[in-house]
Each structure stands twice: as C-alpha cells, then as structure tokens.
Amino acid sequence: KAPYQQSVKEGLLLTTPGKTIAYDFIALRIGELTKEHKIEAVAFDQWHFDEMEKALNDVDVNLSCVKHQQGFIGMNPAIEATEEEINNSRLRHGGNALLTRSVFNVKVISNTQKLRMFDKQKATGRIDPATALVMAVGLAKSYDQGQGSYACTVI
Q1: Please, which of 30, 68, 142, 155 could form a disulfide with 43 given CB 3.0 to 4.6 Å?
Q2: 3-state secondary structure of 120
C-alpha cells in the first residue's frame, strides 16, 4: 500500500476534505496556483470534468482547459514529448517521492501501430501523478497561443 499519509505530511499530496472529491476545494487551490505561477492552461481527462469546470467557473478561475484523450492517440504524443524532455535533461522533479513511486508503477503498452499508452490494469500501483505529468508535458509541448515556447513545472 502506498504511503499516502507520508506524502501528505511531506506536502507532496493535497487531499480534499471528506470522503468524496470536493471539486470546489480543488478549484480554489487551482485558483491559488494560477496566482503563484504562470499557468495558462491545464490538460484534462473528460471523466467528470463537467463538475470540475463548474467549480472553476464558480470561483472565477480564468484558465484554458484542454481536453486530453487517455487512449493511444492522446497519450502517445504526450509520452514521446516527456521522453524527449527527460532525454534532453529538461525535466526535473526535485526528488518528489510520490511522483517517483508513480513512475515506477507505470506499465506501457503498444498497439499494432506502435502507439503507446499507460495501462492502469497492469500497473503495480497508482499511476495518477505520472499520468498528470505526461499530460502536462504533452500540453506544454503542443499548446500554442502565438507566444512561443512554454515551460512545464511540476508544482
């Protein structure tokens, strides 16, 4: 079992109050982060995003939300972008233990077209932080509003 309480104590994981997802709590924290960092967009998985979008709108968070497919078509370019950043020493995570564990849990599968994605069923533990990282790097690599290159920072 993953040591989530230790990750919370170390400030690596923020939990929401209660036993269910508190979208309003998450939206407020995202709003705070947009004030602390230059966040112009977030990638999202469409599952339950309507609830997250409503919560973001309710607290007036002005942020571009970009849909990110979780299958081979969406994940392959994001995995490739992340590999490129790692291979060129442009991606560092500061020794984040939660992210490290998550990366080691990832199992990658390929289809007949050699496209790759993470397989949650074959994973040896939680992979959500690794998935979020790959989605963020893929977004940073592809996001363009005419202002040049974008940086991706793990926060």
Answers
A1: 68
A2: coil
